[in-house]
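Consider today's protein:

***
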Amino acid sequence: MPELGPTTPSRTASRTRRQVVTLLAAAALAGSTLPAFAQDFPTKDRPIRLVVGFTAGGGTDAQARTVAQKLGEVLGTNVVVDNRPGASTMLAASEVARAAPDGYTLMYSPSSTFAQNPHMFAKVPYHPFKDFTPLSVGGRGPLVLSMSTSVPANNVRELVAYIKANPGKTSYASFGLGTSSHIYGEAFTRQTQIDSVHIPYKGGSDAAKDLIGGRVQYMFDSAPSAIIAAQSGKVKIMAIAASQRVSALPDVPTFAEQGYTGMDLPSWLGFFGPANMPPAVVKKLNDALVKVLAMPEVAKFYRDGGYEAGGNTPQEFAALVQKTHDEWGAMISKLGLPKQ
């Protein structure tokens, strides 16, 4: 059984330094224009739009709506979630990249938008470092392996045995080509040497519906979405794709505990704006986000979904984006996945 252990990113030191500098500049120094705008931001009569690259009803959408309500209270204006699913979150990302850098268009996005898409697609309609301003991480949490209860298995090894006994007859869902859900599915397929069909969806919510309905047999899902799906009684959560178990699922073992290595790369969701946002607006938004994410009710909502809420500085978030981009790039290169 081949291992997919940690690898060293094949980036040159100079390129990595340039990308880090680009991100740090976007996070801290970009955008010296619109000073009056920054001083008055936000105005009560103009809502802030928070773009989410998935359909309503999934785990990412639920987190975004929870934060949006509290963020609006802190900032004194309405924050409205705008769902723009499709193209593995690239539709949402390109929408935000083209928006005016005035703080009124933001994005709540998974790490796949920045860490996987650039490595998985030949044509990405945005630059992951030059077109955005990192504001703050929102939550950190793993993906999990969820399985339809129609499959007669109680652990990962039994699931693998079932698929091998039915080659080409099983399928797994993902919430989009090039997303972490897809890449983990490919890594799982390669490591276990199984024959299963990949079916990409436009978001976790649509994929979970077909998993609950038994139309697909398994998927790598976000922990919040998987917990919601499991409440139907039609889905089992089989494994945690992280180095340790999560508090919301204390009885679910990790992949490593079940004998499968390399299934533990970082996964997070975070808040971004367009490039060249005024530093004063960036600071106001970051301060508000950090405050909201520290609220006990918000932290509990994330924790109940298998995530840990917690903000950080734009500079810290920029460094995390770069690190995650490089680590996922190394995994994709090792898997030999072709660009779509």
Q: What stands out?
A: Residues 204 and 324 are 21 Å apart (CA to CA). The chain is about 40% helix and 20% strand. The chain has two domains: 13-141+267-335, 143-258.
